[in-house]
Amino acid sequence: MIATTRRTALLSAFATVGTGALAATPRSAGAAETGKAAAAVDLYAQQVMAAFPDQPGLGICVVEDGEITLAKGYGVKRLGGTDKVVDSTLFGVASNTKAFTAAALAMLVEANRVEWDAPVTRYLPTFEMSDPVVTRLMTVRDLLCHRSGLTLGAGDLMIWPNPTHSRAEIVAGLKYLPIGTGFRSGYAYDNVLYVVAGEVIAAVTGAPWEAFIQARILDPLGMADSVPLPSLVGQRSRAEPHARMGPPVRGLGPQTVLPYDGSFDAAGAAGGLNTSPRDIGKWMRAQLGLGTPPGGKPLWTEASAREMWKPHTLTAWYDGPTAENPVRPTLQAYGLGWFIQDHRGERLLSHTGGLAGFISYTGLLPGRRSGIMVMTNAEENPVLRSLRYGGPDRLQGRSDFDWIASSRRVQAQTDEKTVKEAAEAVTPKGGGVKPSLPLAAYAGVYRDPWYGTITVSTAGKKGLKIAFDKTPALKGALETFDGDTFRTRFDDRSQEDAFVAFSVKDGAVTGATMRAVSPLADFSYDYQDLKLTRV
What we know:
Elements: E1 20-21, H1 31-34, H2 36-51, E2 57-64, E3 67-75, E4 91-92, H3 98-110, H4 132-137, H5 167-173, H6 192-205, H7 209-221, E5 242-244, E6 255-257, H8 268-271, E7 274-275, H9 277-288, H10 302-309, E8 313-317, E9 331-334, E10 339-343, E11 346-355, E12 358-365, E13 370-376, H11 381-395, H12 403-425, E14 444-448, E15 452-458, E16 464-468, E17 475-482, E18 485-490, E19 498-505, E20 508-516, E21 531-534
Antiparallel strand pairs: 1-3, 2-3, 2-13, 4-7, 5-6, 8-9, 9-10, 10-11, 11-12, 12-13, 14-15, 14-21, 15-16, 16-17, 17-18, 18-19, 19-20, 20-21
Helix pairs in contact: 2-11, 3-6, 5-6, 11-12
């Protein structure tokens, strides 16, 4: 969902390998050949855990030629604990949910209840973007392929972290988000339009998005461990989230256990799914079967499968493989819920997902009817990078590049840059001069048209407090920094702090803008999109 932050540089040869299970699916006489990739991935996962001992746990599923050949847990649910990750352990898989939302809409298209290229306003008459032309032109298809003209992560403070915005409020807020680029002229990843897509499903079916996903995808596939929303996890066995909380910024420092976030329901269609290694293989088989799992009934047609896998938006282009990155593609595009590119000459469908303390990856090689899903319970990019590239390599029968060493090098470079940028970020450009007004003059209620209100209040005689009124996690001290620019110090230190630059005219505060303090702050902390006016 969010593009999580981490980075590790710790090296050690220790790993805790959990228990798991190979699929119970009956296999043919050629099963030994089919299971080669599973054995290679299993060994490689243990090597990754040994190389990055701060990684608490992993869940991995491998499908080969349409068969689940590996569904296994590694490590522990909680760092320092003994409760092992197993094949039924749940992980939040965040934006890997987007493919489920796309598939749900494909089913409704096949039932003639939705049209891909019909305007969104046909199903949601109150839907409105900030540009009336975009409002008229925005189709159901456009909701899914990140070409709306919104900037990266625009509006995500309505869904993150733990705000109280309802789905209706999120949809209503869209009309205040500025269009940053031309409509359909380029790529910028978003989450809020997937919330709109979920509301299209609800409007057409008369039931919320999560009910449709449960009844039409999870239940038919027998995904009994999985739930479409975090709040539904309940007492099920789940991994605990982890992250490095500094110093100096999130993404560096020792690994820390985070509180589990069960309040992401409003954005379920963008990233709500919680699933297990043994369950996700059933979904992967349906995808690789072009909508029909082996021995099962079709969920969607081959035509719909190919529509979802078709490139819609060009996302990036490169010069191709390099010595440091032998799988770098020439082109990458986004379809409907999937990224599409090549991996060593074969088409690869993929997606990543990130929530607080969880990052994950799905990679499918349709030409082989094979794929891999990696779920982790920490924001460790070197771990995920090692597996997201090394996993598909092993599906192709190769292990000739050291992705573990490569990921260490990349992370070390990132960490060095981050430390430098973090120090620069907290160095006042104006020399740390005093505010131009008494502190009490900055107190008041400030409103952003899409987010809502933020309250600044006095805290005794010498301080200020700030509270995002619809986000309980974002409240705390507001400290002087540089002139009329202040900085937050939220009580919940797992949240990203922000600079607050107040506008002063004729001796009075008229409004404020914001930006994240940390250079590693996830894009879903889109403070920069707030345009606050004093109420």
